[in-house]
Amino acid sequence: MKKLRRTMMFVPGNNPGMIQNAGIYGADAIIFCLEDAVSITEKDAARRLVFNALKTVSYPCETAVRINHISTPFGYDDLDAILPAKPGIIRLPKAETAEEMLEIASIIEKAEIQYGFPVGSIKMMAAIETAKGLFNAAAIAASHPRMTAIAIGGEDFVADLKTTRSLDGKELFVPRSQIVLAARAAGIDAVDSVFADVNDDEGFMAETTMIKQLGFDGKSVVNPRQIRMVHKIFAPTAKEVDYAKRVLAAYEEALARKSGVIALNGKMIDGPIVARAERVLAYNAAVGGH
Amino acid sequence: MLVLKKPGQAGTVESNDILIAVAPGEAGTGVTINLTSPVEKQFGAQIRTVIGETLAACGVADAVVTANDRGALDCTVRARVETAVARGAE
Amino acid sequence: MKNAIGREIPDSILERYNYKPYAGPFATVPTGRLAGAKIAVSKPRSEKILKSIDQAIDASGLQDGMTISFHHHFRNGDYVLNMVVAAIARKGIKGLTLAPSSLNDINEAIIPHIEAGVITQIETSGARGKLGRLMTAGKLAKPLVIRSHGGRARAIEAGELKIDVAFIGAPACDTKGNINGVDGPSACGSMGYAMVDAAYADKVVAITDNLKEQPLFPISIPQTQVDFIVVVDSIGDPKGIASGALRISRDPRELVIAEYAASAIIASEYFKEGYSLQLGSGGASLAVARFVREHMLERGITGSFGIGGLTAPFAEMLEEGLFRTMYDTQDFDIPSIDSLRRNPNHLEISASYYANPHSRGPIVNSLDVVILSATEVDVDFNVNVITDSNGVIMGASGGHCDTAAGAAMSIVVAPLIRGRLPMVLDQVQTVVTPGETVDVIVTERGLAVNPRRSDLKAALSAAGLPVMNIEDLQRLAHQLTGVPAAVELTDEVVGLVEYRDGTLIDVIRKPK
């Protein structure tokens, strides 16, 4: 089954307490942040801390490292320090061109060869945080086979648009949809931005419900408490699970009969419906449902 | 072999962290470690071992280390020593 | 010799202090009769009110070597214990046994009187801070005696703890000595721990800052048990007695533990209409209340009763009708005290009714589920709540072993790692609750079910909870922390830990 990325939790890269406990909250992925969560004077300390944690702590989920952009003085050093620890994903913030991704892909490949990792085992994802990046989103998403997800960074994006963030997020409606389109066109995951106010659970759940409807595969979170809420929203209802099971049963039956026509309760079942049913059951399995 | 040029410091006194200060030691004097830790009884020896091993791996033979531990795991101790050494070697 | 759970108890200790070793949670069959207070007489229209604590000490006949008791409902706002011990010290009385239901940090004020020999022996639930360090250092003439709340009630009723004078802080007291805890500036709520003292002490002195005309009601402690009344300016600091509503933890790690614990309850056969529940007052316990509440609402389940140590989240569940009754020995916050005052289904009970194993039936025997905390657990499921990782006394026995023994499902919640210390050990430093009465240990990284409870293990695993062997849980901790070196102890015994039936389950040795 494909990896679920309902929740990607940011963990500040220079906080040992948070790093050692990051695996206990049930996030589908942890993103150790070397970028915004780390002050300029502690970049060196954070990358060594994250490296050592990745080497020794066994995390029960996917691990990603958000490096500094390669146009800053820190990006290449981040890659040099982190890649030997074999993170699951390198996440580039403020991605604007496919070329940047190719540059990082070639560095990753060199490291994989140098450290004896299977080539292609370290994935990449890009966060789109500018209008320029958004216009190149499709190319970025499809830039390299290592690309596994594309995300939107809401705060920076809104600043780049010269507006502010509203509760219903209308200013991000178009960018969000375009990210989903870029992801789907490239066959990778779309991950939504973090929600600004960690104390506003209601607003958080409304936004998560909305981005799920837009087609996102998951959401970035900053507080472990939010994980439970996202997973609840992404979990299929008992009714959806039941329907999905019946769809797949009808599909299996039709396959067995070598019949091209599938019907359930008199309604035609076609490919998209089967695919959706499979996705519903995959999610259901991930949340421990039956 | 790496010779420290100046004192280097890394880490914090937040819980689960360790504040490591390394200072150049006179050639041939080896490594001196002054450790304060709430888990001295249970892990004092282990923390000293990790500090010593990390210094050796960095190629530092002579140093005076002051370590103020707040319950750091070995991987944190290692990271902080590496960073302090790198800062002292710049 | 080794007792039934393999703890080494020096024979000399068993002989000198006349103890039997722990033999199993229900191995002791009590014999004999209940003890009782001295018979007294009170003539019509006689006066109980005395002018001062000094006068009351004189009137009580307190002498060198006697035993005095207090209740700990005023928690860290308690003025009574310190005030009375200071007055006793001024009189030059020496060699007393101090037997409060528990001690709080504020009681550190009596340390000079311990050092001066006014108090030479302490029998209580536990101690923290400076008092804990003093006891650990072996500064008492006899080792500290630790009893659970149920065990203390039992010891009093059996005559093993003979109280000569009980000093009872009374938030409301009428002129004849009827007392309750819900009225007045120093209201503390339930008077559950003081009730046993009042019924069995030879002399009972009520100390109040809120004297009322007769008749006072409701009555928690009746006038028939009270010899003397003293009015003082204040018996406690309200800020220290009860906090504002105790709130649910926002610590994400505690929430993970709480969610696992709640899921374990829900996955068990006990979670059904009419079940009963006891929660601790720690942040994780309160969070369990919130998660359990959601599921009770979802499934339309109401509980028959809860037991407190009451806190706001539990009082709210009573108010909402999610539990039909609350049994209450102690209140931790203002909403709980209000609930006891207003809600007729909120019942005040004595420590004996709560947990005394040698009675016709304490309420803990009807408990389905209890959530308990721990400072350490071990691979035999034994629990320590008394000494810290360095062997220093810093906690209290409370109702831990009582509820673990009584409940059908006892759940211990604890972080797997504190600082760098793994909390699942080969052997806990001090056993308070024997592993055979502990069913599930819940940590942020997984749950361990006592091998005796294969039924629970199956139910919890089927619910998708991360159930593992306790040894694997320990290994998981060691992978992160490394294996801790053992804390070195001397042979000097500074504390005796009684099991609730009066046998010796462990001793506390002074650390090196």
3D shape of chain A: globular
Proportion in helices of chain A: 40-55%
Number of strands of chain A: 10
What is the string of SSEs of chain B from the N terminus onward? EEEHEH
Strand order in space, largest sheet of chain A:
1-2-3-4-5-6-7-8
Major sheet description of chain B: 4 strands, mixed
Question: What's the gyration radius of chain A in Å?
Answer: 20 Å
Q: For the residues shown, what is the average pLDDT of chain B?
A: 96
| Beta-strand content bin of chain A | 15-25%
- What kind of oligomer do you see? heterotrimer
Strand order of the main beta sheet of chain B, please? 1-2-4-3
Describe the structure.
The complex is a heterotrimer of chains A (290), B (90) and C (512). With 290 residues, chain A is α/β, with parallel strands linked by helices. Chain A has helices spanning 16-21, 43-56, 75-82, 98-115, 131-135, 137-141, 154-160, 173-186, 201-214, 225-234, 238-256, 271-286, and strands spanning 7-12, 29-33, 62-66, 89-92, 123-128, 147-152, 189-192, 218-221, 263-264, 267-268. Chain A has twelve helices and ten strands. With 90 residues, chain B is of the alpha+beta class. In chain B, 39% of the residues lie in helices and 26% in strands. Chain B has helices at residues 40-58, 74-89, and strands spanning 8-10, 18-24, 31-36, 63-69. A four-stranded mixed sheet of chain B has the order 1-2-4-3, with helices on one face. In chain B, helix 1 packs across helix 2. Chain B starts with 7 loop residues before the first strand and ends with a helix. Chain C is of the alpha/beta class and 512 residues long. Chain C has a ten-stranded mixed sheet, with helices on both faces. A nine-stranded mixed sheet of chain C has the order 16-15-14-13-17-21-25-26-27. The longest helix of chain C is centred in the middle third of the chain and has 17 residues, at 283-299. At the A-C interface, loops of A face helix 9 of C.
